[in-house]
Amino acid sequence: MAASLGFRGAASGLWYWSGRRRPVGSLAAVCSRSMASKTPVGFIGLGNMGNPMAKNLMKHGYPLILYDVFPDVCKEFKEAGEQVASSPAEVAEKADRIITMLPSSMNSVEVYSGANGILKKVKKGSLLIDSSTIDPSVSKELAKEVEKMGAVFMDAPVSGGVGAARSGNLTFMVGGVEDEFAAAKELLECMGSNVVYCGAVGTGQSAKICNNMLLAISMIGTAEAMNLGIRSGLDPKLLAKILNMSSGRCWSSDTYNPVPGVMHGVPSSNNYQGGFGTTLMAKDLGLAQDSATSTKTPILLGSLAHQIYRMMCSKGYSKKDFSSVFQYLREEEPF
């Protein structure tokens, strides 16, 4: 059986924006394993993202075989008639299509190649889709181990956050063998409105890391601009309005503004609760740093953003939404 894999890089979570939902189109051509049938689908990882994703599979008629390291989170699924397994290996024994949604590289390695991991019982021809945010190099190593067992591995990280997960409006960035993309897409379209093929295994993770680095940089920039304007005597709502009709407009300013009271329904107006945690952003930026090092790519602003979010974590912001960088800047002593 597969040996435990080594990995490098920080663990990661991710929060991105996804556009308005489009109606699910006709199903792609059915691959050799006949994806159209509503046979059981394994789902491992029922956290803030995995829980609503699994529920959307249920809404589309797929029976589930579930596992989470915290049994209590499986209770509502069991009461709804779904099967709950005692380990990832049991999930692999009972399902030949499995989706994993885990918080870190370490968790993914354990679930796939650990003592009771998927690879202990995986069936030949199984399709394994990992929607976790992890180091691309770990995805590639997992894919090699899965291939040795005669199965198929694809990385399919998501963007859109908890809200999009609940509404089935996620965007999936998929890496893997292109011939298997149609098979993966049929399942992923139950949970998202955009399913994009990126290339070989690991490219989905790379796309996600790039997007999240840009998100962090733009959020810090928005927070700095808003803070400067407020301290210069501008009304924050007026300033946001001006920014959003000008060239400085970005997602962080017009959809997820970090200033309390400027927008409703965002973490900044709820004491920065919910959303995407500062700790997870720091971890994602760590992945970007690792990728930049391995590819010898300069990421000057990305590295600075990493430092800022790490400092925030050390100063009590770890459990707050990453837009709390505005609050952090407000509380810092003037330079």
Automatic annotation (TrEMBL):
PROSITE patterns registered for this protein in UniProt: 3_HYDROXYISOBUT_DH
Origin: domain of life: Eukaryota
Catalytic residues in the record: 208
GO molecular function: 3-hydroxyisobutyrate dehydrogenase activity; NAD binding; NADP binding
Location(s) in or outside the cell: Mitochondrion
Keyword Secreted: no
Annotated 3-hydroxyisobutyrate dehydrogenase-like NAD-binding domain residues: 202-328
Mitochondrion is among the record's keywords: yes
One GO term (biological process): L-valine catabolic process
Domain 6-phosphogluconate dehydrogenase NADP-binding: residue ranges: 41-199
Keyword vocabulary terms for this entry: Branched-chain amino acid catabolism, Mitochondrion, NAD, Oxidoreductase, Transit peptide
Reaction(s) the record says it catalyses: 3-hydroxy-2-methylpropanoate + NAD(+) = 2-methyl-3-oxopropanoate + NADH + H(+)
Subunit structure: Homodimer.
PANTHER family recorded: 3-HYDROXYISOBUTYRATE DEHYDROGENASE, MITOCHONDRIAL, 3-HYDROXYISOBUTYRATE DEHYDROGENASE-RELATED
Stored NCBIfam families: HIBADH
Entry protein name: 3-hydroxyisobutyrate dehydrogenase
